[in-house]
Amino acid sequence: MPVEQLYNRYHEITGEVALPLLRASKRFQKPYEAYRRSRYTPVHVLESDPASRMYVLEIDLPTVRVPVRYIFYISTQDWYLAPCKVPPKARKVLKKYRSMGYQADTYMAIIAKRYTRGAKKLAARLGVPLRSPREARRDMARYFGEKRLNGLLAALRGRRIYGELVFLAYALQELARELGFSVPELAADPLSLQRLAEEGMVVPQEGLPPPGAG
After folding, report:
1. 133: CB partners within 8 A, 6+ apart
2. What pTM did the predictor assign?
3. Do residues 169 and 32 make contact, with C-beta atoms less than 8 angstroms apart?
4. What's the pLDDT score for residue 1?
5. In the chain, which residues have pLDDT < 50?
6. Which of 53, 97, 139, 181 could form a disulfide with 145 if both were Cys (CB 3.0 to 4.6 A apart)?
């Protein structure tokens, strides 16, 4: 594959998995900065290298000390990824994972437009899932919507929350929605977040959606 085409394919695929996170983060970045009265960068691209095909991104959520980390190997080939191509890619991802020097909630994957059933099974055995961009987005949506947001709301059901917890709930809401997960609307307008943080917001007693991502 010509170098220019390789670079274009790499950026196309990384955009498919990363742009929803970037779009959602913009909606809560400025309100949270205003509340904290300090600079806040929710999304950090730690590595974006078409030559090695590696892409590493982290998300810092309000109030959460441990970031969410994504480590991807981006396959740029047009044809189906075969089992023989999987081991070196998995090794690259695992090497990157071991080299990261601090704790994070980490999701690793080989991202490929197309792959064979055998390649998917081998990748799973090697400990690095093989996903299409759409499947990776679905995994991310379930993480932010089902695990983090629904878990938070279930723990706080019926309680009034203040301060940074309001921003955490809103950040999870926007990330999950942008990725296609159906979640309750806690706050429709980012401009109202500072008022809600100061006055408090009651978490609904009912209305949590069943697990599922679009």
Report:
1. 13, 16, 17, 111, 113
2. 0.90
3. no
4. 63
5. 207-214
6. 181
